[in-house]
Amino acid sequence: MTSTDQNKPKTSNQTVIDWVEKMARMTRPDSIYFCDGSEREKEQLTAQSFTTGELEPLNPQKLPGCVLHRTAPNDVARTEGLTFICTSVKEDVGPTNNWMSPPEAYKKLAAIFEGSMSGRTMYVIPFIMGVPGSSFSKIGIELTDSIYVVLNMRIMTRMGQVAWNELGDSSDFTRCLHSKADLNMERRFICHFPEDNTIWSVGSGYGGNVLLGKKCLALRVASHLSQREGWLAEHMLILGLEDRQGRITYIAAAFPSACGKTNLAMLIPPVTQPGYRVWTVGDDIAWMRIGPDGRLWALNPEAGFFGVAPGTSKQSNPNALKTVRKNTIFTNVVKTPEDMVWWEGLDGDTPAEGIDWRGKPWTPSSGHPGAHPNARFTAPAFQCPCISPEWENPQGVPISAIIFGGRRAHLAPLVYQSFNFQHGVFVGATMASERTAAQYGKLGEVRRDPMAMLPFCGYNMADYFQHWLSMGQKVSKAPLIFHVNWFRTDDKGEFIWPGFGENVRVLRWIAERCAGADRAQARQTPIGYIPSDGALDLSGLDIPQGTIEELLRIDTEAWLAEVAELRKFFFKFGARLPAEINAELDALEQRLRR
Ligand code: GTP
Ligand code: SPV
Ligand code: MN
């Protein structure tokens, strides 16, 4: 950058300029650069990052515009234990969040931010979560000392001049401050101050901890706001399922991290399901409002995908592979001698050698994965071959069904439908899943993860359940609520449902239930409605009848044990838990005992 580029703010917004100066007095960068989001800026920053090794070039013929990044080995996933919600009253964050008082958090983090950018440039990134001109949208400004963050935000949000224009002279923006500092886990904190519309993140360079528009703003801070403003900020994909008549049913689905949102959002039906098509609206976050027609309308506030690389293949997710062929940032994957990228589960031959995610020489016999299990790609959404024509509609899309789901080796059947909206909220509140590599902690351990929002709900989860219940009161045509589980295993630990593209069969039953179609018959069980015999189209699928029965079996004893677990979990919320949740739990137990 030239020095004139560096110092000239691209906004005359005095609130912004004053705040940037104040943060710079604390972090003491050598220079400050206001981003405009232009192509030229991207090229200059990329070239600069190559000289420091922050990014590495990839094969320009086969992967045009793509780059590689490796995080520090201690910095490969979200650190939930170091993530705090800082509100004046502790009870407001509830038993599932870490809390710090705002004065204590500001003081503690200021000590780490102090001088943390000296010798570095502070980049000022204005960004829109949502589309310009939409009443859904929120503006944020992130200050960071990482080019990796700038280039990721450029893909994941509408960033630069478009955001300066949208903001104008307003002081209504989320103040996001990030510094890598020394990447020391002992000095790593991700703190949210919803009462001040502020986020401070220090000591990390990993996606979910540092791309502050994503989980921090669009979920934790937005969920807090949405409770007050009467809308929903959710960890959900949004897709449109097109049927043989060309009708499109919009569905939002919440699965915990690394449990299949990106895959479902980009699903390609198998050849045995001709005439069906999935359109991607979003793969991770949904902002949902009640429209003038009284229905729930959903918008994806992001502009890109920050997806899990391992397991992504022509077989599992061909659309994702096509999306990442250009202009993509790869994080913690293998680099081959041809400057191509590779990860476990990719099609074709395993490279004989390469550089692993730690930056060390690697061969298939090294005895450890070459790509980190939480390796990621960052790619522009518009590059996705199945991106919905509606994905940037400022009104969003009308939602007919909401799906909750988790990774459960046992217990939860392939699919069931709740009896009504309130029961559906209960179904979401009772979600659980086995831990994945997307967050630090013991892999495989089953943990309760209501609505897949456990790590992302910015306020007391008991109040969050109440908010969902009250949204149900307000919508005139509430979406139907379902639960799915693609991850049932047999006694050898093998998945018994083929998943991926075959999941369209379940989506079809869901859409047909929404349309009230005759063929979508259901049978009542103690936990909800499950497809009657023959209602799921299983034609062309080579699965033994016994397996189908197993996939839809309700094990009463196991469910009673689950009820006992749920009582313990809900007890944590004390008197703040809505009475409806306890009533639903009692009703479930009664139905199971009958
Ligand atoms: P985040 O980006 O962390 O929020 O994850 P996500 O929910 O978008 O998960 P993603 O679609 O990236 O899938 C994560 C892992 O689950 C990948 O390894 C997939 O291959 C695997 N997966 C996705 N769908 C299925 C499925 O239907 N069956 C099975 N067995 N695995 C699946
Ligand atoms: C998740 O972990 O749910 C992700 C990736 O989508 S991150 O942005 O790191 O949160
Ligand atoms: Mn996610």
Verbal overview:
There is one protein chain. With 594 residues, this protein is α/β, with parallel strands linked by helices. It has 16 helices and 31 strands. The mean pLDDT is 96. The strands form seven sheets. Strands 1, 4, 5, 6, 7, 8, 9, 10 and 11 form a nine-stranded mixed β-sheet that branches. Strands 12, 13, 14, 15, 16, 17, 25, 26 and 29 form a nine-stranded mixed β-sheet that branches. A five-stranded mixed β-sheet has the order 2-3-19-24-18, with helices on one face. The chain folds into three domains: 183 residues, Phosphoenolpyruvate Carboxykinase, domain 1, CATH 3.40.449.10; 271 residues, Alpha-Beta Complex (Phosphoenolpyruvate Carboxykinase, domain 3); 77 residues, Phosphoenolpyruvate Carboxykinase, domain 2 (Beta Complex), CATH 2.170.8. Helices cover 28% and strands 22% of the residues. A hairpin with an 8-residue loop joins strand 6 and strand 7. The structure holds guanosine-5'-triphosphate, sulfopyruvate and manganese (II) ion. Guanosine-5'-triphosphate binds next to helix 9 and strand 18.
Task: List strands and helices in order, with pairings.
Blueprint: H1 3-7, H2 14-27, E1 31-34, H3 39-52, E2 56-57, E3 67-69, E4 83-85, E5 98-99, H4 102-113, E6 121-129, E7 138-144, H5 147-156, E8 158-159, H6 161-167, E9 174-179, E10 189-193, E11 198-202, H7 207-210, H8 213-229, E12 232-234, E13 237-242, E14 248-254, H9 261-265, E15 277-282, E16 286-290, E17 296-299, E18 304-308, H10 318-323, E19 329-331, E20 334-335, E21 341-342, E22 354-355, E23 361-362, E24 376-380, E25 397-405, E26 415-417, H11 421-429, E27 432-434, E28 446-448, H12 461-474, E29 480-484, H13 504-515, E30 522-524, E31 529-531, H14 545-551, H15 556-571, H16 579-593
Parallel strand pairs: 1-6, 3-19, 4-5, 4-10, 7-9, 9-11, 14-25, 25-29
Antiparallel strand pairs: 2-3, 6-7, 6-8, 10-11, 12-16, 13-14, 13-15, 16-17, 17-25, 18-24, 19-24, 20-21, 22-23, 26-29, 27-28, 30-31
